Structure formats: C-alpha cells, structure tokens
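Review box. Two proteins, two foldings.
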Amino acid sequence: MDIKYDRRSFIKTSTVSVGAAALPLTMVELAFAKPSDNFTFAYISDSHIQQIKGTQFVRNWDRGLIRAVAETNLLTPKPDFIMYGGDLAQMGSKPELDHGAEILSKLNGKVYHVMGEHDYYLDLGEYWSKLFGKQYYSFNHKGVHFVVLNSILTYDEWTFNRWLSAEQRMAEMAGLDNPNGSPFMVGDKQREWLKKDLAKVKKDTPIVVFSHSPLQKIYKGWNFWTEDAEQVQALLAPFDKVTVFYGHVHQIQYNQIGNIAFTSAMATAWPWPYPQSYAQAQQLLPKLTVQMNRADPFFERDATGWQFIDVNSGRASATFNLYNNTTRTVAFDPQAGHPKDQTYQDEDKRISPQMHY
C-alpha cells in the first residue's frame, strides 16, 4: 500500500501564514467501496492550555492550538466533524478550560470531545462536563459506529480518600514521572455501558474508538497505560474492523493487537520522549513503533506535527507530517499482517534517534 498525500489539496489557501506551517492536527479519512460514502474528520489533541495569572496564559501552548484551529478551518474538503482528543487544560481550572473552549469555538464545524486527565482531576470533570457534555458516549456517522471513552479514571481510594485538597490531587496526576500517580482505567461502569452499546451494533460495522490514554499497556511509569485495557479489547474483539485513536503520549505510536489497529496523535503543545529514553522500569512500547527522528528534542515545536489517517477496512494508514522534519507514512501491510513504517521499519534504514530526557 503506497499512500501519498498532497497537503496543498487539503488547504483552501496559503495566503495566511498558518497554511504553510506543519501543525499538530490529524486529518482522518474513512474509505469505503462507494466514493459517496467516504468522509473525513479532523483530530486535534493535547493542547495543555496553562494559566499564568489573570488573563495571562502560556503563549506557546496557546499558539499551538490557535494554529491547529486555523489550519482545520482551511481544510478542503471540509471535514464532516472535528474530534478533540483531551487535555485541553493543564491544571483543569475554569480559566484554562474557558480559554481553551474559546479558542476551539473558532472551529467551523461540529466538535466532539474526549476527556483528558488534566481536564478531570481538579473537580472530577464537573466544569468540563458543563462545557462539553458527556464524558463517554457513542454516535453513528455514515455507516461507522464511533465510541468515545473516558479512559483516565482510577481507583476510588486514590481519587477520593488520599489528598488534602483537589489542587494537590490534580498536581499529583499531572506529573509525567510521579510515583504518587495512579494508573488509568475505563472502569466497571463504563465497560458495562460499552458492552450494552456494542450489543446493538452488527459485527461487520466499522468501529472507531477514541480514548485519551492508550487502550493498551505501554509504560506504567508514565501512565502510557490503561489498567483494564485487555477487558476493553475483549469487548471489541468480536468486530471485524476496529480502530482506536488516542492522544496523551505526544508521540508517534502504532500497533496491532488481534483485529484492533491502534494509532496515536501528536500534541499541539510539546512532544514527550519515548519510554526507552528513561529505562528505570519495564516498558512495553509496541514493537512495531519506530521512534521519531527528532532534529532537536529541546525545541518545543520539534516532534509535533499533523497527520492524515486513512482507515480502510479497519486498518489505519497514517501519514505524519512532522514539524521541520521528514514526513513519515505508517500503513497496514496486508502481507505482513500488521502496520509498517514505509520508510523506517527496516532497521538498516533507520536514523538513530536522539535519546534525551
């Protein structure tokens, strides 16, 4: 499968400077036998809008989201809808969520939302829910069943009984490498809802699932991990065509577990290093994933970018357009039976990644 995208064909105009920038936004196309059934949606994630004081916010994170919104509005054909993948705020405060929501309000189209841990652990999602609605839900669009999960829940003891204040709870969960954190999960109540929701869907219907954390176990130390991932995967296993999109990790990851294709999205804020760069604990990064070749790991816009994702028969083929770096395509290889990086999958073709943390 050789998938190439001409980015200019998706941009209405280049007269605005944002049109020429490589930005952290995902363009997703679902391909069907009938061209009339094809449709696209845009995917933006992990902006981490952070208040400094009053009306002052961290400019870099603001600009990343503002530019992604502007580029989404320039896409042609116009996407059917936009998915925001979570972590709109950094510390979950009302000013941060309001500011992020105001930026997102400039999007020209229907927007769906995923809950991120940075949006949740200050007030357990109360204000986020007032702004954006349900924390988990499903909808159908042109023959595809979409499921949105809140995958960043954790144990009740950690959530309700451990901390002196909501601010401390939020700060503990916000840390990337924090032994006081707690692993994410979908939870019993939501899995029961998912079971009932999927019972209404025919097994040959394409299923697309959005979560914030990966619905697989990658690296527990950084919470690149969902505690009940296998139980969620078991509910998805009976379906022929399943794709899971997730944010949270701020890097390129891809995997195939049974019939389920997994693809991550890059962030509009900053990149995270890969778990191998911090080898203090066992990590289970998908063996298919090839690290990004980062030109400058300390430049906040390096290793962020946007992607076009083509989903054909439940197999995700993603073209990653990296900021100031080489475009990469990850596509499902029918002969190999799993996704492959079309340029860097073979070890003798890889550029050794810079290992910084």
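Next protein.
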Amino acid sequence: MVYGALDIGGTKIAGALVDDEGRLLVRTERATPARRPAEELMGAVSGVLDELASHLAWEALSCLGIASAGPVDTAAGTVSPVNIPAWRRFPLVERVRAHPRTPVGLRPVLVGDAVAMTAAEHWLGAARGVDNALCMVVSTGVGGGLVLNGRLHPGRSGNAGHIGHITVDLDGPVCACGAPGCVEGLASGTAIAAHALAAGWTAPPGATPDAAAVAAAARNGDVRARAAYERAAQALAAAIAATTALVELDLVVIGGGVAQAGDTLFTPLRRRMADYAVLDFTRDVPIVPARLALDAGLIGAAAAASAGLGHPAAHVAAAPRP
C-alpha cells in the first residue's frame, strides 16, 4: 500500500511516496518560488508530482495528502499561505487532482502543516497511543494541531488547534494577524530574536542573529538571551494551560526549530506551567519534544490521507471532504 504526500511551505515543496508503516519510499523536493506568480508556483508542485509519478511505486498509489502552510480551507480545497503571496484561495486540491498522473477518482486530502505534524506525531511519534494531545510547531511562526478522543481534530476549515493566535497578553504587540498579544508574536523564533536584539543582545561575528543564536547565548549565561526565552516560555505556558482547561489534554508535544533549543526552552516552560495550570485537571500535563523532524509534514499528510481507507494510520482522522 502506497500513500502519496506533498508538503508545501515558503522555502520548499517536498513530495514523497510513503508505505503503510510510515517509511519514505521516494522523496523529492524543489525550492518554493514564493514571490513568483501563482502558475509558476503550481508548476513547481507539478514538477514534484512528475518526479514522484516516474517511480514504480506510484502505480500502487491509494491516496494523496497535501500539507500546506496556512491558512487553509479543507472544505473548499483552497490555500492562502501567509508566506506565499500569490496564492490566495488558490484551488490547490483541484489543481493537484487535475494533474495528468493523478489517478482518476482520487481526491487529494488537504491539511494545514501543523495539523500534518500532529498527524505524524500521533501515528509514529511522541503522541502515539495518546487520546488527547496538543502538538505544536514553534518556528518562524507558531502553529498547532489537536488530537481529541484518539483522532485528529482539524476542525471545519482545517485550522483547529492554531494555538499561535491565542491572545495571551491583552496589551501585547499587534501580531501579523492583526490581533494583540498573540502567542506567535511573543514565542516564535522571530519574536525571540527580536526581543533579545531590542534588549541589547548581539550575535557573535559571522553568526545569524536568530533564535538558535539566542539559545546558544542563553546557554552561555547571557541574561538578555535567557530573558527572551523566559518570555517565550511564559507565553507558551499560558496558551497551553488555557488549551488544557478547554479540552483536558493528556500530552503536549513541541517541535519546530525553536524546540531544538532543548532545556533552554523546556525548563522555563515547565516551570511557568505552574503559574497558569492551577486547576487540578490541568496540572502536570507532560510536555515533550517531538520525535519526528524534517519529514513530519510528509508523514502527516500521508497519515491524514490514508485515514479514510481503514489502513494502519486510520486512527488519524482525515480532514472534512466536500
């Protein structure tokens, strides 16, 4: 049994053929022409599909999942990635369905990239076997997805669990989405670096002044770098505690580039949880790093697509289909 997968982001468009145990049989990718016209972008997607279809395993294709940067609209099959300006309500599902090598009758399943990561972690990663989990991507932005009652919960439009846009500071900075004090504006890698720089931190010569460099400085005792991670941890703790109060989580999984900071992030985050998770049923929820890395989007897209087929990934619910 072979599942197809696409993972579309602002940097790369990746594709894979995945077997029913989550192993990548074939993988390919192209750079995303993120600032180019819509049809040029679609041409890159078609090129990835062409490469996948050239492999023998394509003949056994049973389903095809698409993970995309959001917002997405899974019911309409459209995408409007913030970091891909030419695609606004772009009919990606229909365009992929119309590719000449897409099998007749196969309808691709669309999910947001953070929901795909959640599906992957639930199938094969840190959330495997967990009934109620929040999986987060903390990177350039902050995204997330939910597993409720043992199944992926993408919501009506496919954006449920988007924890990055929970307001945690009523007087906080205005987020790119337009709301004040969002988690993303306080805890993303971009926000961590900006806060450290505003406090007077500077990256070492030749180093990029990003969240990874801030983490390295924090490990070396720089108080401004530590403060930036403390601020991020507080924002994450407030949002996680609020989510736990709403749906009674059993586990929180955090992946993405910022999570690579390890204890620099997780130690203050777990400490700060005590300030916000004060009700009995919200306390002591485990917070763990994601187990899957670069290919989580592809694995999750495959899992979401396969869910409607009764295959081994069927405990992961596919997004709603029109």
